[in-house]
Each structure stands twice: as C-alpha cells, then as structure tokens.
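stage 2 :: seqdesign
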C-alpha cells in the first residue's frame, strides 16, 4: 500500500538541514527513505508490505502513520528504527545509513539514537522498572553507572512512574 494518503503532517517552523556526512549522504532530512521495498516470504508467495516507498521527515515535524490493519504501518516503523531491514532501498536517519549497519552496530545505534515504545509488553520481568530503562544505556555504553541511575529516575519522573522504579514489571 502506498503511504501518500496515510500521513498527517504538521510542518516545523524551521528547516532541518544538516551538514555533509562522511558517507556521502547530505542529510537534508531527519528521516529519509528512498524506494524502500519490504517483502515477506510466505509459503503461498511473497507479501509486499512496502512497495517503493519514498518518505522524508524534517526535524520538528510531527507525523502520524495511520491506516488499516495490514497496510504496513508497523513495517514502516520497524524500518525507521532498524528493528527490521528493507528488501531493497535506502534508509537514512540523520547522516546514518541504517540499511547498511550490521546487527552489532545497529544495536548500538538504536540504543543511542532512537527510543521505541512497543505496542505490547516488552519489559524484562527479572529487572526492575529502572533497570529496564537503564538497559539501553548499558548496551550503548552511555553514562557512568551512577549517571544511568540518575537519568533513568529522571525519565521515570517525566512519565510519572518514579514510584515504580524499584518494582518488577507485572502482567
């Protein structure tokens, strides 16, 4: 399905142009997808979830992805966050060509660059709420241990969950 009619945009007041990066890509957009195709192989044949998608989102824009079940919304978000890989096409977030990253560098990039809130429960049940928040900081080797705890508590305060910091998640 084509996403031209599935986006709601609010334009920013300024343009988000960036500098030339070392990989030859000039990041004129915060998110830049070019001719992205995603095909899922099934026993009854290929299912094309994204067909030649071009999408550019600038810094400060607010974009909502809407559409029917099966229209490719989750696939699109998984492409932008590096959770899934395109069958073909290119995906840049800033100056980073995420379609070229291997699994290890992708995990580090994701931990330092994006935040993902999953639709379904994704916390590790043996870690406290605060430890779950600190986990990406640990994977990305960001902050000292003390700073991680302070940052996690600050983030939990922002979403009014600081009182749950030391509790284990429950279903």
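stage 2 :: out
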């Amino acid at each position: 399905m084509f996403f031209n009619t599935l986006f709601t945009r609010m334009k920013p007041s300024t343009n988000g142009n960036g500098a030339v990066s070392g990989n030859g890509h000039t990041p004129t957009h915060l998110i830049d997808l070019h001719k992205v195709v995603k095909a899922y192989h099934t026993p009854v044949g290929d299912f094309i979830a994204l067909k030649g998608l071009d999408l550019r989102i600038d810094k400060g824009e607010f974009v909502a992805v809407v559409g029917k079940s099966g229209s490719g919304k989750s696939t699109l978000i998984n492409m932008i966050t590096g959770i899934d890989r395109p069958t073909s096409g290119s995906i840049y977030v800033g100056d980073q060509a995420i379609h070229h990253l291997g699994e290890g560098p992708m995990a580090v990039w994701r931990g330092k660059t994006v935040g993902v809130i999953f639709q379904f429960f994704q916390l590790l049940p043996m870690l406290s709420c605060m430890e779950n928040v600190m986990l990406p900081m640990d994977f990305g080797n960001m902050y000292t241990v003390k700073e991680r705890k302070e940052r996690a508590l600050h983030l939990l305060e922002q979403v009014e969950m600081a009182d749950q910091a030391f509790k284990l998640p429950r279903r």
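stage 3 :: structure notes
- Residues 1-22 have pLDDT under 50 and may be disordered.
- Strands lie at 7-10, 31-42, 45-57, 62-65, 88-93, 96-97.
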